[in-house]
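Re: that backbone. Tokens:
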């Protein structure tokens, strides 16, 4: 009955602080997050319920409501710029710290990387009810937008006891990917979350989580992302959801995607030094028939120098449009056809290093391929070859002007890498 008082879309988020950052949270009535939980933080909408977990004292402060939608860097100088994914908050009544926050959040299966569902939100809200207030009135007070907006923090922390059993694991109300932490990325599904990203039936479609990781690692909300060979539009869909601007081209845009511009990636209609991230999942040779356009690079065999010469034009254009210091992510796989191996990745990488510095090389597990059948696995065993199990994601950075050598393009120097200082 009490639960009816909360809107059906009610949800909440847990922000974290430490003893040293807590004061600023209360003084500014501002919660912030680092990039690690940035994607969840940026989904906070005005009036969502919020809690603040002090990781040092293990107290969970509540109840707050978001006074604004989350924004990037509302108060740029807050917390010495360490937590720029921010939301303005207002307390609802007296702020109460709950003891043993870690135990509480664990017992409810709460992750800081995603919003808490309505039922989990209700369970936590119940714990904050002042003993003098009947439960109905407590939920009425919570539902009011004009709740107390003065800062009054209860001095003694409150013990809690979950009365109702909280289902665990409960399906998260919104699936938000995590930032990868190693150089091996394996995405079992092409997409994530409630809405499709690109078209998982498109031949050669990119795993959406891969693009999500590049977007979150190398751009900020509002930045401009370009995909010059965007196929079914996975980059566009990821960027829209994450609050990035995106311009996506293809030589043959799918008829249902009016938001993809027809263009040859070898000449991109954008000014120099303009873009914050370029992502490309190019053809790997002539193994897939993408379209009938004669300018499709996917018609050229990766066993020929021409293939790399044409891709080098795309590399050059990507370098030209990127702002100095910004990143190009390029996904490509090797080829084994008719008993012949072609190291497509290494050959492309040689071209990339003429224009870019290497940030890192990621191994992407190949999934959902047409050759992933027992017939092909048996053939590989019987006839002594391997099915392609991975792709390369080359993460390259456009050098800053001061780092530029006089000669351009630069020589490929394989023994070039020197240990940086510090
Ligand atoms: C591997 S697919 C990209 C898949 C895409 N990332 C997705 O998730 O759907 C490669 C794309 O490159 C495009 N392409 C090939 N040659 C091109 C060119 N010269 N200019 C622009 N796009 C081109 C193809 O049409 C194809 O859609």
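Recovered sequence:
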């Amino acid at each position: 009955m009490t639960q009816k008082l909360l809107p059906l879309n009610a949800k909440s988020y847990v922000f974290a602080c430490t003893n040293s950052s807590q004061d600023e949270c209360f003084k500014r009535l501002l919660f912030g997050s680092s990039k690690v939980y940035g994607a969840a933080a940026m989904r906070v909408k005005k009036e969502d319920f919020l809690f603040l977990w002090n990781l040092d004292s293990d107290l969970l402060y509540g109840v707050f409501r978001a006074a604004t939608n989350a924004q990037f860097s509302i108060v740029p100088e807050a917390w010495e710029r360490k937590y720029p994914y921010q939301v303005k908050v207002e307390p609802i009544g007296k702020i109460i710290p709950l003891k043993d926050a870690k135990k509480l959040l664990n017992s409810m299966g709460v992750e800081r990387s995603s919003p808490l569902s309505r039922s989990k939100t209700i369970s936590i809200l119940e714990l904050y009810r002042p003993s003098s207030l009947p439960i109905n009135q407590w939920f009425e007070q919570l539902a009011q937008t004009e709740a107390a907006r003065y800062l009054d923090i209860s001095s003694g922390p409150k013990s809690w006891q979950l009365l109702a059993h909280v289902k665990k694991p409960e399906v998260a109300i919104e699936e938000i990917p995590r930032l990868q932490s190693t150089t091996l990325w394996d995405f079992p599904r092409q997409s994530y979350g409630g809405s499709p990203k690109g078209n998982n039936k498109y031949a050669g479609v990119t795993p959406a989580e891969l693009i999500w990781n590049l977007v979150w690692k190398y751009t900020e909300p509002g930045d401009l992302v370009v995909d010059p060979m965007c196929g079914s539009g996975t980059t566009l869909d990821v960027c829209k959801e994450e609050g990035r601007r995106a311009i996506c081209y293809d030589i043959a845009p799918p008829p249902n995607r009016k938001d993809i511009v027809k263009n040859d990636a070898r000449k991109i209609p954008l000014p120099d030094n303009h873009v914050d991230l370029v992502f490309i999942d190019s053809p790997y040779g002539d193994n897939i028939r993408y379209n009938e356009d004669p300018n499709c690079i996917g018609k050229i065999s990766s066993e020929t120098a021409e293939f790399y010469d044409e891709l080098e034009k795309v590399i050059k254009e990507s370098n030209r449009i990127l702002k100095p210091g910004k990143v190009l992510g390029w996904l490509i796989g090797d080829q084994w056809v008719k008993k012949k191996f072609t190291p497509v990745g290494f050959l492309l990488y040689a071209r990339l290093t003429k224009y870019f510095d290497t940030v890192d090389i990621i191994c992407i597990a190949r999934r959902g391929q047409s050759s992933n059948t027992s017939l092909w696995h048996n053939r590989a065993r019987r006839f002594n070859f391997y099915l392609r199990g991975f792709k390369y994601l080359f993460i390259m950075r456009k050098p800053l002007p001061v780092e530029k050598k006089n000669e351009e393009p630069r020589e490929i120097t394989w023994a070039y890498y020197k240990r940086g200082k510090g």
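The longest strand covers residues 85-98. The chain has a mean pLDDT of 90.
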